Every structure is written in C-alpha cells, then in structure tokens.
What does this fold into?
Amino acid sequence: MASIDPGAPFEPGARNPVSDAWNTVGSYESYEEAQAAVDRLSDEMFPVENIDIVGSGLRLVEHVTGRLTKGKAAGAGAASGAWFGLFIGLLVGLFTPGPTWLGLILGGVLIGALWGAVFGFVGHAATGGRRDFSSTQRLVASKYDVIARGGQAERARTILAGAAAPDAAGPGPGAGPGAPGPLDKPGPGSGSGAAPA
It folds into this structure.
C-alpha cells in the first residue's frame, strides 16, 4: 500500500480526499469568496504556494445568447475570416516594398471575409437545424474548498478566523482557530443545538 505524504509537492491529479478533508481551511459558495480568502492569507504573509482551491460538484452551465440563423452564422464567419485575412495581409505586407502592401491587406480582408462567410453558412446548414441558437458554456462548482498543504492548515484557519471576526463587537461565538467557513455545518457533538432529553 502506497503512503501519501501531505507535505509532498502538488502533482496535478494526485488528490488525497482524506488529507484534503483534514486540511480544508474553509468552504465557500463562490470562487470569488475562495479567492478573497486566499488573498487575505497572502496579505498576512502566509505561504500561499501551500494553498489549493478545489471546486466540487461541477456542472456545465450553458447560457443561450440568441437565435442563430444561416445569415448570422455567415456574418460571424465573415467577421472571423476578415480578421484572419487582415493578419495574413499584414504578414505578407511586411515583406512587400512600395504601396502594394495596402492592396495585399485589403485583398486579405476581403478574401478572408468571403471564405469565412462560406464556411459559417455551410457549417450551420450542415447541422440541419438541430442547433439554431448561439451560446456560451462554462464549468461551475457548487462548492469551493480552500485546502492548505504542508502542515499549514491550522495557521490558515487562525488567519481567516481573525479576518471573519467583527471588528467592533469582537469575535463572535465559534470564531477561533477551527472556525468553519460559510458552508461548513457543525458535526455531531459540536454543541450547536439543544442537548437530547
């Protein structure tokens, strides 16, 4: 059986769930909150090279941006082709003396736009109407854990607990070195409820 060293350098894909659970500093609903926690640690001179932000509960979110017709597909293809044609025209124009370079640039833009429009139109027509909309896709996690490696978890919790404590009223109940993050739930026997009768 292989042993896992929690202080070993991070290798992509080499996650140890048991070690991660013990070294989780906090859990957050959004990436921005997890990023702010790591930024707070960095501000306090914590060695952030020992920190990982791990998203779990991944899901694909596709945002539909509009209806896609053959004309819109051809227009988008023409715009992309024009940019590519401009790039090629500029590249060839660098090595062409005299005023001929302007013709190369305009020719590159026009030919690129024409071919881009053709490819956009044909590409959309080939779908047979199965995808008549445009969209953007992104991966979203339902929870982001900030995990400390190298035996630094307790120190990170202390720093973040100090950052979360109210300034004027002093630390609230439960604030301290092991204070949970916004998504952490108290475990059995944590004293957060009425004692059984």
